[in-house]
Amino acid sequence: MAMDLVNTSPTVWRGVEKLDALDALTAFLGEHGLGGWAVGPDDLPPVRALRERLRPLIEEPDPERRVLVAGELTAAVGGVTLADGWAATVPDGTPVTAMLGAVAGLGILAVQLHLGPDRFRPCSSDTCSGVFIDTSRPGRRRYCMPGLCGNRANVAAHRARRRAAGQG
């Protein structure tokens, strides 16, 4: 979720804001199993600010610093508890930004602990400025959005091979 939130930024989408309206935020929450959370127009600016705080955290080269900042995100919501598996509960009335920060912080901490600090990477696409957290089993993911960035890279490589072979 943290990576997906970061990658809604206009810096990733060449100036296009993917969280441009309340319905976009509501859809984002629904896509990440957080549907039904009450949001209002005043929630958009703080969620965008959280997004800008998360990017440097994903890019952070120091694993200890990453743990410290992710821990601060979870601590901002008093009373976060872990339930079965990865489920977390937050107190009633928690603002959406604090809830998203806690979820992102817990996710980042879990990846850091279970998969290691080398799973936090920039997108390998020459045309993308996205970042991602590689949660794939083998840990070989290269693109923030494989269906978009990976496909673009594959098409460009295919066209380059065809040009080199004189086929157009």
TrEMBL record:
<dbReference type="InterPro" id="IPR021005">
    <property type="entry name" value="Znf_CGNR"/>
</dbReference>
<dbReference type="Pfam" id="PF11706">
    <property type="entry name" value="zf-CGNR"/>
</dbReference>
<protein>
    <submittedName>
        <fullName>Putative RNA-binding Zn ribbon-like protein</fullName>
    </submittedName>
</protein>
<dbReference type="InterPro" id="IPR023286">
    <property type="entry name" value="ABATE_dom_sf"/>
</dbReference>
<dbReference type="Pfam" id="PF07336">
    <property type="entry name" value="ABATE"/>
</dbReference>
<feature type="domain" description="Zinc finger CGNR">
    <location>
        <begin position="119"/>
        <end position="162"/>
    </location>
</feature>
<dbReference type="InterPro" id="IPR010852">
    <property type="entry name" value="ABATE"/>
</dbReference>
